[in-house]
Amino acid sequence: MRAARWVFGGSMLVCLSVACGGGDDPAPSSPPGGAAGAGGSGAAGSAGAAGATSGLGCKEEGALDLGGTFAVKVRLEVTMKSDPAAVVSVCPADQRGAADLLAIVKMSQSGGAIDAVDTIVCDVTLPPVTAIAGSCSAGQKGTVAAQVSVSKALAAQVPKVRPKTVTAKLGGDAPGATFDPERLTFILGSKSASADAMAKWKDISSTSPCNSLTKPLGTSMDCEAMCVSDCGDVLDADLDGYPGASFDVCGRGDEPPGAMCNTDDPSEPGVTLQGKAFLDFVIDPKLSGVAKSSCEITGNADASIRYNVLGANVRLSGSLLPVGSVITAIPAFEVVKETSKYRAVRVDGEHGAPDWKVDFPNPDSACDAVRKSASSVF
């Protein structure tokens, strides 16, 4: 097998319009246009008195008001590690990258309590990683560029998958108050409410009939009951007929520029690595921070990013790969909470904030509006 460089992306798992790469903080200390940020320290912050302005030119009128619609960008710094049995290893080891989540939240506030935080997830991007066939030695680099990205069918369904409504604690009634929402759990391809309960491939060993080189199972539209722990848990997230959430897999070696990747029919000539992987997936950010004003919240983010490969139809140089080989080829992602950040910006026109015309009851339209304008604040 050739050396590989895996790039994990997508439009759930891909940020469609926001420039998502790199490691810059999504919550800059100064808002666009050079306006000064909100002052205050803790719940006793003094900025934001009636008629005053703070953060993004926000017009404070009385107590801190977070009721309304906000665009949110979460940037998770992650390390990437290989399975010890992987045929493709992260190289150099323990690489770091940024995973981004773009979302819309609508909050309801009653006095000093945030009694509802409703969320639409628009896009999630996982970071690129370099890898190599076999074990990694010092100084080695991959030579094949590959990408795992959300399929078009899944991209159309992601905004419709609504996480459970959560609540949040507000540490005071003035700008600078702490903001502490419950953990948000976003799951694709599974009926379960937690990562631990999601279905998974039972056995990745080469001796298992599920991973036969000559007749690999899990490559069709059927959930392979003999190989998947609980087909009853598997949800066709993108309504394409395949189990779980479908991701396109493309890996380019020495093909000429412009060579097409045939993900729908990987048996057709195309690129070195091509096909689809069928997953269940969860990302569960826990955000904690400060309401700088009634228009802006910033802070730290913690999360886990977990997935299970439930099947795959992926070919390497024309040969169909067993699901077990696909599983070990994709690295695990571990979030570094100390350096992961988020920023939320009001976008409903209240308190002098911009009005992006976000139609929250219509997830597709709402996400289109946020993607169109997100680069102006993130």
Summarize the structure.
This protein is mainly β. Helices cover 6% and strands 35% of the residues.
Structure, explained:
The chain has 378 residues and is mostly beta strands. The protein is built from 3 helices and 20 strands. The strands form 4 sheets. It has an 8-stranded antiparallel beta barrel. Strands 1, 9, 12, 13, 14, 17 and 18 form a 7-stranded mixed beta sheet that branches. A hairpin with a 2-residue loop joins strand 6 and strand 7. The longest helix is centred in the last third of the chain and has 11 residues. The N terminus is likely disordered.
Distance linking N and C termini: 40 Å
Helix content, binned percent: under 10%
Instruction: Give me the side-by-side strand order of the main sheet.
Output: 4-6-7-10-11-15-16-20
Work out the strand percent. 35-45%
Number of strands: 20
Q: What class would the helix/strand composition place it in?
A: mainly beta
**Regions with pLDDT < 50 over 5+ consecutive residues?**
1-55
Overall residue-averaged pLDDT value: 82
User: What integer value in Å does the Rg equal?
Assistant: 22 Å
Sketch the topology as an H/E string, one letter per element.
EEEEEEEEEHEEEEEEEEEHEEH
Layout of secondary structure:
Blueprint: E1 5-8, E2 53-54, E3 58-59, E4 68-81, E5 88-90, E6 95-110, E7 113-125, E8 131-133, E9 145-150, H1 152-157, E10 166-170, E11 177-181, E12 186-188, E13 245-252, E14 273-283, E15 286-293, E16 296-302, E17 305-316, E18 319-320, H2 323-329, E19 332-335, E20 341-346, H3 363-373
Parallel strand pairs: 1-9
Antiparallel strand pairs: 2-3, 4-6, 4-19, 4-20, 5-8, 6-7, 7-10, 9-13, 10-11, 11-15, 12-14, 13-14, 14-17, 15-16, 16-20, 17-18
